[in-house]
Write a structure and sequence with these properties.
Elements lengths: L4 H8 L9 H8 L6 E8 H17 L3 E7 L5 H6 L2 E4 L5 H11 L3 E4 L6 H9 L4 E6 L12 H18 L4 E4 L2 H10 L7 E4 L20 E6 L8 H13 L4 E6 L11 H9 L4 E3 L6 H6 L2 E4 L8 H8 L4 E4 L14 E4 L4 H13 L4 H15 L2 H15 L1
Parallel strand pairs: 1-2, 1-4, 2-3, 4-5, 5-6, 6-7, 8-9, 8-11, 9-10, 11-12, 12-13
Helix pairs in contact: 3-15, 5-6, 9-13, 12-14
Length: about 400
């Protein structure tokens, strides 16, 4: 687009003229191609279920979106409906490198934190300009535990995370504690950067605000049966309240786990037999049991993205939670719940007793919890914020 003679004379006369900048002139000659991002994860199904809002937000922001995961061609339609193109990436490093060189993405983003190392290695070889890893949770190994077992667990976790992040130049962490830890341990160098994620959020339409139940005061703890989730502290606090002959119901909801830190079936059965709590072996959907609760209890040692806490608050339930990374960003102390010292049955007992002695606290906390969920946890808004953050990094 050129200037007419009349525009030039008006410009010389001091009148304002909208003169195009050099970059605008270049864009008119040769339109810039849309920015392209490759989103990768281990499972295509999990990517759709957990990251649909993020995929849609990238597309709405003007990105060409390519989703790379294992899942089969039949799932391509689901990605197309989100505004993305699905690709099952090559498994060999050389073929993956050649594929990425042909795609020419501006960035590759690993969505599950444990990036497909072969694909990230191929991205580095193909000189993809930005390689991003999203870390939702570092794991319980970094909880404030002492002793040689805890030290060994941290060393093992360190090795795993160093391998996962070796080829990323940018990491998006779930909370400030994780950001500081990643920056100090794993991401050093001139190009390395670690930033906080705006949060993952939840699908609010799937979690209606539920009326508080009638009957006995009920505390529900949902989640996998792992020591790091605070299962032993919950059981001990339940024993203490029951010993004082308080008419309170405790329900432990979760499937038995395997590996280090798993709570043995015999241990849980003993708790049930002595009458301190009930156990429901349900690890799929905790919503029905959250509906039964007056208060949800999550005394975890550490979290990344506290989806259970957000879910409970969206359903209008106060949360008693460990004052740890991931939970303190979600639960507002004495507003939407109570934060307690981690790994302390005594602190949890004190918080539970406060609720038992002052049940009038529950209703206002429940209302504040739902209001907070509506204003802060919407997955669509969180996805848009993350895309803006990534776009700025590019």
């Amino acid at each position: 687009m050129g200037l007419s003679g009349d525009q030039v004379f008006r410009g010389l006369a001091g009148l304002p003229v909208a003169v195009p900048t050099p970059i605008e002139l270049v864009r008119e000659i040769e339109p810039a191609r849309p920015r392209k991002v490759v989103l990768c994860a281990a499972s295509a199904t999990t990517m759709i279920l957990a990251r649909a809002h993020l995929i849609q937000a990238f597309a709405a922001h003007g990105f060409e979106v390519v989703c790379a995961a294992q899942g089969g061609a039949e799932i391509a339609t689901a990605f197309a409906q989100l505004g993305a193109r699905y690709v099952e990436p090559p498994r060999s490093g050389f073929r993956a490198q050649r594929w990425l060189a042909q795609e020419r993405p501006d960035a590759i983003v690993s969505l599950d934190g444990r990036a497909d190392r072969a694909l990230m290695r191929a991205a580095a070889a193909a000189r993809v300009p930005r390689r991003v890893a999203v870390i939702e949770e570092l794991g319980a190994a970094y909880a404030q535990a002492r002793g040689w077992r805890a030290s060994l667990a941290r060393l093992s976790a360190d090795r795993r995370h160093r391998a996962d992040l070796a080829l990323a130049d940018t990491v998006i962490a779930a909370n400030e504690d994780d950001r500081a830890l990643i920056a100090g341990r794993f991401m050093r160098g001139a190009r390395a950067r670690v930033v906080n994620a705006p949060g993952i959020g939840i699908e609010l339409d799937a979690f209606r605000c539920e009326k508080l139940p009638e009957g006995r005061l009920t505390f529900v703890m949902p989640g996998p049966l792992l020591a790091a989730k605070g299962v032993f502290e919950f059981a001990e606090a339940a024993r203490r309240l029951k010993a004082r002959e308080l008419d309170v119901r405790f329900i432990l909801v979760g499937a038995f786990a395997e590996g280090p830190g798993a709570v043995a079936r015999e241990t849980v059965e003993a708790w049930v037999d002595d009458g301190r709590l009930e156990h429901v072996e349900d690890g799929v959907d905790a919503r029905g049991w959250i509906r039964e609760a007056h208060v949800v209890v999550l005394p975890s040692y550490r979290e990344g993205v506290a989806r259970l806490a957000m879910t409970a608050m969206a359903m209008g339930r106060p949360v008693i939670a460990g004052d740890v990374a991931g939970l303190r960003e979600v639960v507002a102390h004495h507003k939407t719940g109570i934060l307690v010292a981690p790994q302390s049955a005594a602190a949890l007992d004190e918080a539970l007793t406060l609720i038992v002695r002052t049940p009038a606290l529950i209703a206002p906390m429940a209302r504040a919890a739902r209001w907070t969920a509506e204003s802060e946890f919407d997955a669509g808004l969180k996805a848009a914020e993350m895309v803006r953050q990534l776009a700025a990094l590019l």
